[in-house]
C-alpha cells in the first residue's frame, strides 16, 4: 500500500515536470502527454525491466497512465500562469526524486534483492525519467548539471533507507527518512549551493 501511494505520487509530480518541459518547448497537447508519461514512468520502467518483474508497473495498472495524462492536461491549461516555469520545474523535480527513491528501494527489497541492488534501483527509479525527459526535449539533463547534488542525493537517500530498515524493520520509517534526506540534500544544492568535489585535470608532467 505504501509503495503504491508513493509510486502514484512520484508519477504525478514527475509528470508535472515533464509537462512543464513540454510547455517550454511549445508542444501540442499530445506532446505534453507523451513527455509527461515518458518522465513519469521512464525510471520505473527501467527499474522493472532490470529487475525482470512479471509486468512493468504501468502495464499492470493503467491508473499510472491516467494520473500522468491528467497532470499533463492540467499543466497544458495552467502553465502560462506560472511566474517562472523553469524554477517550478526544478523544485518539483527535486520533490519527485525524493519520493521516487524510496519506491525504487522498496520494490527491489520486496523482490528479495540485497542492498547493492536496492541502492541502484533507488537511483534508477529517481533519475532515469528526468534524464529521458531532458534528452528528448533537447535540454541539459538536470542529473548531469555540473556539481549539482542530484544522483548524489538519490544515492544518499537510498543508503539511509537501507540502514534505517536494517535498524527498525519498518518500511514506513525507512521511506520517510529516505525522502527527507534526499530532498534536503537536493534542496541544499539548489538553494544553498551545496556542491560535491569534481575531477579537475592537470597538465601532464614533463
Automatic annotation (TrEMBL):
It is a multi-pass membrane protein. It is found in: Cell membrane. InterPro entries: Gly_transporter (IPR005115). Residues 5-79, 91-164 form the Glycine transporter domain. The chain crosses the membrane at residues 6-22, 29-50, 56-77, 89-109, 115-136, 148-167, 173-194. GO terms for cellular component: plasma membrane. Signal peptide: none annotated. Keywords: Cell membrane, Membrane, Transmembrane, Transmembrane helix. PANTHER family: INNER MEMBRANE PROTEIN, UPF0126 INNER MEMBRANE PROTEIN YADS-RELATED. Belongs to the UPF0126 family. This is Uncharacterized membrane protein YeiH. It comes from Pontivivens marinum.
